[in-house]
Amino acid sequence: MTSVAGGGRASRPVVGGSAAVLVAATVWGTTGTATHFAPGVPAFVFGAVTFGLGGLLLAATTGRGAVRALVQRDTRRWVVLGAASLVVYAVAFYAALAEAGVALGTTVAIGTSPLFAGLVEWAADGRRVSGRWVVATLVSVVGMVVVTVARSEAPGSGSLPLGLGSALVAGLTYATYSWAVAWGMRAAGTPGVASVAARASVPGRAVVVPGRAVVGAVFGLAAVPLVVVLVLWCTVGAGPDALAPAHWPVFGYLALVPTVLGHSLYAVGLRHGSASVATLLSLFEPVVAAVLAVLVVGEHLGAVGWAGIGLVVVGLGLLALPGRRRPGSATDR
């Protein structure tokens, strides 16, 4: 966490980090709308192409650091867990968008991930939830129920139960991915800051593993099964229009912008600011998705639906706000 004791010099990285997270959340919010311009493409193909191609590119940007994060014992298990979670998320998220709609699918998937993260930390780390967490959960759940009812009344909906189930799976697996990456970065050193994680076979030579390299390793490993599944699907008989040349600009956008650019900016935000601020700013994603779904895709939510999305954002904002520091405490939570 960046200290503010240094005055203006320290505040500039914090502001820059916050701006990076806000831009990342904005480009993530365009994901669902982008899929609207490639009709007929199955949900898992979007996930495979986006996270497969994007994952390989993101891993390439971290270079040898991603390889070191994968082979080192301290970080390898977290990379594997994060990659497995990301593979499931890649398919579940796009299935949620296809069946429940862009606005609802994004809101439920992204909206439940911090709540699932609290449950994962409680179950795995023994971290007790606070009263504020309970209040935030109740507000968010009410909001998601409201927006679900509003969306279910809209014409042309897909399978709403399947869409909501996929969104919940996406929320859980993204929470697991985030938890695994957090532990992986902790094993490598301070999140976002290059640290000496191990010694090489050459005496006196340190192997440096940047925290961002853990993210690159996770995406690179997750890309392998996604690309394999995509190739097999194309081999056994893909739909004639799914991989049409007209769809590749959408695939390229999803791989380069939301995946590579978005997650790279988010890493910058974590390096220069607190996790609570980054989490709060990332909640801008479902807002962007909902607005674009109405303005571009043509979905209709109505006043009730917008009120439900507002409740979700308010609830998650309560969850992300820093708590009071106890004497001698080193964290905000």
UniProtKB/TrEMBL annotation:
| Keyword Transmembrane carried by entry | yes
SUPFAM superfamilies for this protein: Multidrug resistance efflux transporter EmrE
Q: Which residues form the EamA domain?
A: 18-148, 215-319
Q: Where are the transmembrane segments?
A: 12-31, 43-66, 78-97, 103-124, 131-150, 162-182, 213-238, 250-270, 277-297, 303-321
**What InterPro entries does this protein's entry cite?**
Diverse_Substrate_Transporter, EamA_dom, EmrE-like
Give the UniProt subcellular location, in the record's own words: Cell membrane
Q: Which UniProt keywords apply?
A: Cell membrane, Membrane, Transmembrane, Transmembrane helix
How does it sit in the bilayer? Multi-pass membrane protein
The primary site where this protein sits is: membrane
Instruction: Give the family from UniProt.
Output: Belongs to the EamA transporter family.
List the PANTHER family: EAMA DOMAIN-CONTAINING PROTEIN (PTHR42920:SF5), OS03G0707200 PROTEIN-RELATED (PTHR42920)
Protein name, entry field: EamA family transporter
Organism the protein comes from: Curtobacterium citri
